[in-house]
Amino acid sequence: MPALEWKATAIADLLAILDYISDDNPEAAQDLKDEIEGKTSKLPEHPQMYRVGRVDGTREMVVRPNYIVVYADGPDIIAILRVLHAAQLWP
After folding, report:
1. β-strand pairing of 67-73 with 3-6
2. How far is residue 76's CA from residue 69's CA, in Å, rounded to a whole number?
3. pLDDT tens profile 31-90
4. By the 8 A CB rule, do 60 and 51 touch?
5. Among 33, 10, 15, 16, which Cα is nearest to 81's?
6. What is the pLDDT of residue 4?
7. Looking at the DSSP assignment, which residues form a beta bridge with residue 70?
8. pLDDT at 88
9. Which residues sit opposite 80 in a β-bridge?
């Protein structure tokens, strides 16, 4: 089973999103964090469960209608590349 690896950009994305949300609603920020962490933790078991990404070599997990986790799945590592609000453009 491949290992799960969070890239620095994805961690920074997630922290920025959570910081923004927590200004108005700390509980909602914690709920989103828990949901993202819970869903991404299952990726090594089912790496191709989510749609093919808009960028070659990636896949996209829609966590909620407005939040997307972009990742790359390989035989040894599932790399979480970005955590984006749907209004953001990537790369």
Report:
1. unpaired
2. 19
3. 999 999 999 999 999 999 999 999 999 999 999 889 999 999 988 999 999 999 987 765
4. yes
5. 10
6. 96
7. 60, 82
8. 72
9. 6, 71
Tokens 């509980």, located at residue: 27
Amino acid at 43: L
The percent helix, strand, coil of the chain (3-state, each to 5) is 35, 30, 35
Q: Residue 37 and residue 45: Cα distance in Å, rounded? A: 14
* Residues counted in the chain: 91
Element containing residue 77 per DSSP (H, E): strand 77-85
| pTM of the complete model | 0.91
> Would you say the C-alpha torsion 50, 52, 56, 60 has a positive or negative sign?
negative
What order of strands is seen across the sheet that includes strand 3-6? 3-6, 77-85, 67-73, 59-64, 51-52
What is the distance between the alpha carbons of residues 12 and 17, in angstroms, rounded to a whole number?
9
